[in-house]
Amino acid sequence: MYMPAADSWTTDAGTERTGSLATLYDTRPYIVLLKWSNLFPSREFRIFVVHNLLVGITQRDLVMYEELQSSRRREEILGLISNFHRDVFSKHFTSTTSHCCYDIYIDKFDTVFIIDVSALHTDCTDGVLFSLQDELLPLTALDPLTEPFMRHLHQIRNSRYLRPIFEDCGDGVVDSEVVDGAQFLQTYVPTSLHCIPFRVVTGEHEREGHRRAIVQSTALRLPSDNINLSDSHAIEAFIASQSATVEEDGDSDGVE
């Protein structure tokens, strides 16, 4: 059994099990520890996959980074992620019913590493700059070769929820009126970079707009997220109370 450092595994632990109890009890548990690394949050991205298609990319950290304001750099990142998804990730998810999201990290040498993989689910997925309920989950119920699926993707690309990076998708765009499924698959596969919504924070108002929604979703938070999303006055009060407790313990230890 693999239990990551998040509270979402408790949901899985309480669900119905299949197989005999003997098989369950004979299974040897393992503790898996991930090596800590000093990662730069500006290089962490979350990728959304529906029907094994790359349908959205967002920065993971809700901070405006100067590096991500460059359209040239965004296009480079989009190319790196698209190639990684096509050449590495998608080979392990060949079914057209695959719906998931995964986090990646791009180092200074532009090498892509997978940080985490998760199911696309309301209880354990943070859509960050995408609306999971309104934009991504409806895609899972649609056939990728039908007009409704193409129309929905077109709406995501031009969504008013948060402005996508690429306003003009150029000649490779699948128009909302196109109903040819074969043409859709030829134009919307990960190699058609301009059709993939790639969202980053471009202003403080966007960050604040999503802050409250993330507070409600704690399943995928890191410890630093809990601190960053906490009220500053509450943190100061907590530090003060802990300092007072330490001082009281020190005084009591000196009493005979």
Low-confidence stretches: 159-194, 215-220
The helix/strand order is HHEEHEEHHHEHHH
Helix content: 25-40%
Structural class: alpha+beta
Arrangement of strands in the largest sheet:
4-3-1-2-5
Number of DSSP-assigned strands: 5
* Overall outline: extended
Strand content: 5-15%
Could you characterize what this model shows?
The structure is a single chain. By secondary structure, this protein is α+β, with helices and mostly antiparallel strands. The chain has a domain at 41-214. The protein contains 9 helices and 5 strands; from the N terminus they run H-H-E-E-H-E-E-H-H-H-E-H-H-H. Helix 4 runs antiparallel to helix 5. The chain is extended, with a radius of gyration of 22 Å. InterPro entries: CDC123. Pfam families: D123. Keywords: Cell cycle, Cell division. This is Cell division cycle protein 123. It comes from Lygus hesperus.
SSE inventory with pairings:
Elements: H1 9-13, H2 21-26, E1 44-50, E2 53-59, H3 71-87, E3 100-106, E4 112-119, H4 132-140, H5 147-157, H6 181-188, E5 198-199, H7 204-215, H8 223-228, H9 232-253
Helix pairs in contact: 4-5
